[in-house]
Design goal:
This protein has a domain at 56-111 and 138-211. 67% of the residues lie in helices and 2% in strands. It is built from nine helices and two strands, in the order ααβααβααααα. The chain has a two-stranded parallel sheet with strand order 1-2. The longest helix is centred in the middle third of the chain and has 24 residues, at 82-105. It is globular, with a radius of gyration of 21 Å.
Length: 229
Amino acid sequence: MQKTKNFVSELYEKYKHLLILSYFIVYLIWFQYIEKTVTTDFHVIHTWLDDQIPFCEYFIIPYLLWFGYVAWGIAYFAFHNKSDYYRLCAFLFTGMTVFLLVSTLYPNGHYLRPHYFAHHNFYTMLCEWLYTNDTATNLFPSIHVYNSIGIHLAVMQSDEFKEHRTVRTLSFLLMVSIILATMFLKQHSVFDVTTALILAFVMYRIVYTHKWSNTFSRSSVQKNRLPQM
């Protein structure tokens, strides 16, 4: 019995950092709620650039690869580098929460999807499945774009991959492909992509370039400094 308790205790200490992933439960419940409530009465998102981008069903492949890309990024850093893992989660979860708040307070959607496909193949079949299971609402900032940037930034900022040029290059190409896919599949407007890029830049400055250790050190010094007489 004692051995079992010790084993469970050791297991908890080793993997307790995974508990923050329970955020996905909150996210999915909230997301499903707005998906069901935001259906017809919403602000239409549209830019003139959207009309210049043709529909291309082949982008469904990188679009769907997004799920594996994000899962791989979180899992890899969770089991290889806790510091990078915490920074990645801070980046992803903050942006995802901003998205949920925007979608809740400012219901939005678009009418960019094609009414029919000029031809049918395996890729258009996947697009039909996507359109059926994902409404054209709750769009910005695009989480597909934002999270793709987040995973790539984690790869680029990590010491684990500094000497792995192939991984860094593949990550960049997949990130770019996913971002393009959101527009070529008519899943998102250029506006959604732009707002995701802006939010990603802001969060990059906060999570990766701001020296938080220096901030906390200065704060500690100021608190411990005796007042001048």
